[in-house]
Amino acid sequence: MIAVKRISHATLETPDLKRQIDYFTDIAGLVLAERENGRAYLATKVGDLAVQLETGDQARCARIAFQAAPDADIDDLRRGIEAEGLRCHARNDPAPGIAKMLAFDDPKGTVCEVFVGQTPIGGNRAIPGIGPIKLGHLAFVVDEPKRYADFYCRVLGFRVSDWIEDWFVFLRCGPDHHTVNFVHGKRRQMHHIAFELKDWAHIQSACDFLGGRKIPIIWGPGRHGPGHNVYTYHRNPDDQIIEMFTELDKMLDESLGYFDPRPWHRDRPQVPKVWTMPTDIWGLPPSADYVRQRQ
Ligand SMILES: [Fe+2]
Q1: What residues sit around ligand 1, an ion, with C-beta below 5 angstroms?
Q2: What is the C-alpha separation between 161 and 250, in angstroms, rounded?
């Protein structure tokens, strides 16, 4: 097992690269940091690589990149991955600010990328659109959530933060309540990609901005149970669900084993558990346009 510390960026393939670049810059509010043939690198306004776009036959999440401890030895990481019986490839200069990266497939064929050092690729840029402060998490529809939870815990060092019954699992690799989620559904695909906003005021301006562009909010605002994040969801032109959230639970000290206390917690302390439906603290149920992602 190795131990990744945080998510860096996701690589999304798209049949229409320009349309996705336009969405992620003008609506989501990321910065186009670099563009080459069939590929674009998008950073947050504070300069962290968050989304890599590549031309592909269909819209899908092809890869997720995680950062391990900056002082980790990349050859040790490679041996740790191969010790799990996985075929691991190394790539040089895979993305701006990253010198070397390891890559292997998870059970559904999404490529997991691991690196140790990263240089920010921009910084404090004025942007149009919503302007998240970081990439927060990715959720995937799979046939067997437990199998994927076991894989990410065993290979990459994730911990289980919460389950909803036996069909939705939330995994953390750092203080954030979840960085990767797996939900049971019919088709293996990305369920949503989530970006963290600064605060409630930022959620409000995001909703006003989406409303002004006549982009429907398909669920929220509301406050989830697992993770307790305040959320809104909409779809991008590739029909992918985009979440904007704030106030996600944090486990600041793993040895304590509970999430930092918050007024909206119903458990004292808030420890990882299995939730039963309905789970949200407040807010209305999701729209049919949200629910169809698992069907
Ligand atoms: Fe989410």
Answers
A1: 194, 243
A2: 10
Judge contact between 229 and 248, C-beta under 8 A: yes
Four-point Cα dihedral 12, 197, 71, 64, nearest 10: -20
Q: Which helix (H) or strand (E) holds 76?
A: helix 74-82
Centroid of ligand 1 to alpha carbon of 293 (angstroms): 13
List, in order, residues 6 or more apart from 161 with CB less than 8 Å away: 170, 171, 172, 177, 178, 226, 227, 249, 251, 272
Query: Residue 121: what pLDDT?
Result: 84
Bridge partner list, 210: none
pLDDT digits (tens, 9 = 90+) for 116-155: 999 888 777 889 999 999 999 999 999 999 999 999 999 9
Å from CA of 266 to ligand 1 middle:
20
